[in-house]
């Protein structure tokens, strides 16, 4: 009888899971909806890079994003839906709307004997990655999220560092990043502190948690010739190397700073983050091409950020995304550079900053030079007002508003980026999220399951079904 039951179990398992992918990649572009994909693709074509890979996947469907209590979701609720398959209230991680813990596709994969990797270009305890392993009433509970990360037992955590400034009642026990990392180390995680050590990792090194920075990784546009941190593509490549095994793996990789550039209303930075995200998906596709019958790649977004539009008034329907190529640093990096200039020279004048403006945005003030952009009279007036405003805040030693979706004090960098954006034909409607649907695309084993309109909870339900959940 026992042999019969075992044989029946094996037969049912074979029938249920014969077509289930052995390797699952879930890519989430935070803040990346249809317009972000379209804008990045048009920019990519203009600079000679060609169409986006993520837009070419054969299976696709518009995906609704609302949370349990808002038409406009935040990342915590959206990620919980994508990861766990249940709606929850905004700012809640890994719990449903009634406050009950819910479990992710990553947990299901781990219980099914797969290795699991969680990757992000922002802090690894940020809302999106946290939804795959944490269970907290508020995304700001950094201490609890960090502890949940360790207790997950997942095999590979890589990207930005842990969030600091833990806000819950146990904050005094974890005042510094180091304490949380020491706890992880005591539970068997190898802490990796440099890019060199990261790239040298071998599967025999065991479970990994990176600490190459205590914050997010830098914007792609701000990376110099020597990048001290791995790119998202390099994180994914190393993740594949570390996770690959005979039982297969589940990997979630987030392009987190697409969202941050959207909050900043910085189109040039936004499109470059999306291209870097696309490069990371290319790494997964190379793996898929070696294991086409066993690999699934799903690409989605958690919500739209910024209300990005292509096409602005009084431009004759002209759109030229190539204009964004003139911007060589994020608006935030420009502000930091301006602050550094001011500290060295408190009598800073417009003439002093013109070379920086030309370098950062390709904007000149008198005539044309090497096909750079010459300001109109109105643009010149806007620039002067923004410069004077920034100088007042610098003299008053005011820090920038740290609320990344709130109004900014320092506006010169944003003013200059908006000049390029208008020439490109793009604009923003908000510094926050919107209710726009996102696009989900897929390729590989069982990709047809994603070839239809869906709710974001359906993504988790489909992936969890591969693991009998």
Strand-helix topology:
Layout lengths: L1 H16 L5 E7 L4 H13 L12 E6 L10 H10 L20 H7 L3 E9 L3 H4 L11 H11 L3 E5 L16 H10 L3 E3 L2 H5 L8 E3 L21 H12 L5 E7 L1 H7 L3 H24 L4 E7 L2 E2 L3 E2 L20 H14 L5 H12 L1 E2 L8 E2 L2 H19 L16 H13 L1 E2 L5 E2 L3 E7 L9 E2 H10 L4
Parallel strand pairs: 1-7, 1-8, 2-16, 3-4, 3-7, 4-6, 5-6, 11-12
Antiparallel strand pairs: 2-15, 8-15, 9-14, 10-13
Helix pairs in contact: 2-11, 3-16, 4-16, 9-11, 10-11, 12-13, 12-15, 14-15
Describe this structure in words.
There is one protein chain. By secondary structure, the protein is of the alpha/beta class. The chain folds into two domains: 319 residues, 3-Layer(aba) Sandwich (Alkaline Phosphatase, subunit A), CATH 3.40.720.10; 114 residues, no CATH class. The chain is 40% helix and 14% strand. It contains 16 helices and 16 strands. Strands 5-6-4-3-7-1-8-15-2-16 form a ten-stranded mixed beta sheet, with helices on both faces. A two-stranded antiparallel ribbon has the order 9-14. Strand 5, helix 8 and strand 6 form a beta-alpha-beta unit. Helix 3 packs parallel to helix 16, helix 9 packs parallel to helix 11 and helix 12 packs antiparallel against helix 15. The radius of gyration is 23 Å and the shape is globular. The protein starts with a helix and ends with a helix. The N terminus is likely disordered.
């Amino acid at each position: 009888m026992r042999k019969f039951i075992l044989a029946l179990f094996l037969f049912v398992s074979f029938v249920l899971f014969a077509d289930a992918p052995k390797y699952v990649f879930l890519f989430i572009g935070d803040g990346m909806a249809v317009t972000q994909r379209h804008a990045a693709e048009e920019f990519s074509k203009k600079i000679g890079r060609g169409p986006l890979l993520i837009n070419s996947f054969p299976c696709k469907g518009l995906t609704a994003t609302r949370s349990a209590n808002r038409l406009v979701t935040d990342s915590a609720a959206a990620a919980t839906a994508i990861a766990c398959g249940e709606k929850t209230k905004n700012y809640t991680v890994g719990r449903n709307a009634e406050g009950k813990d819910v479990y992710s596709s990553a947990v299901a994969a781990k219980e099914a004997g797969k290795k699991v990797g969680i990757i992000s270009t922002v802090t690894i305890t940020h809302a999106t990655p946290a939804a795959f392993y944490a269970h907290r009433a508020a995304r700001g509970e950094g201490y609890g999220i960090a502890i949940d990360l360790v207790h997950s037992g997942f095999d590979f955590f890589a990207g930005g560092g842990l969030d600091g400034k833990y806000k819950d009642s146990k904050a005094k026990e974890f005042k510094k990043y180091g304490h949380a990392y020491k706890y992880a180390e005591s539970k068997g995680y190898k802490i990796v502190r440099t890019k060199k050590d990261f790239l040298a990792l071998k599967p025999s090194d065991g479970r990994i948690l990176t600490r190459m920075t205590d914050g997010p990784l830098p914007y792609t546009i701000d990376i110099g010739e020597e990048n001290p941190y791995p790119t998202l593509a390099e994180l994914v490549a190393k993740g594949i190397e570390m996770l690959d095994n005979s039982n297969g793996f589940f990997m979630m990789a987030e392009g987190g700073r697409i969202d941050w550039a959207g909050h900043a209303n910085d189109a040039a930075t936004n499109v470059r983050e999306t291209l870097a995200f696309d490069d990371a998906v290319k790494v997964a596709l190379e793996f898929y091409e070696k294991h086409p019958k066993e690999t699934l790649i799903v690409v989605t977004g958690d919500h739209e950020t910024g209300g990005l539009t292509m096409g602005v008034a009084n431009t004759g329907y002209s759109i030229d995304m190539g204009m964004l190529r003139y911007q060589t640093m994020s608006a935030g990096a420009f502000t930091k550079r301006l602050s550094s200039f001011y500290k060295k020279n408190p009598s800073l004048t417009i003439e002093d900053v013109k070379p920086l403006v030309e370098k950062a945005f390709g904007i000149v003030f008198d005539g044309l030079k090497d096909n750079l952009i010459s300001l109109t009279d109105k643009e010149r007036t806007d620039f002067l007002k923004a410069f004077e405003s920034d100088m007042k805040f610098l003299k008053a030693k005011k820090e920038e508003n740290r609320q990344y979706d709130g109004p900014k004090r320092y506006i010169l960098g944003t003013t200059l980026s908006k000049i390029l954006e208008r020439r490109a034909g793009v604009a923003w409607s908000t510094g926050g999220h919107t209710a726009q649907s996102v696009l989900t695309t897929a390729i590989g084993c069982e990709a047809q399951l994603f070839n239809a309109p869906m709710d974001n909870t359906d993504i988790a339900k489909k992936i969890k079904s591969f693991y009998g959940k």
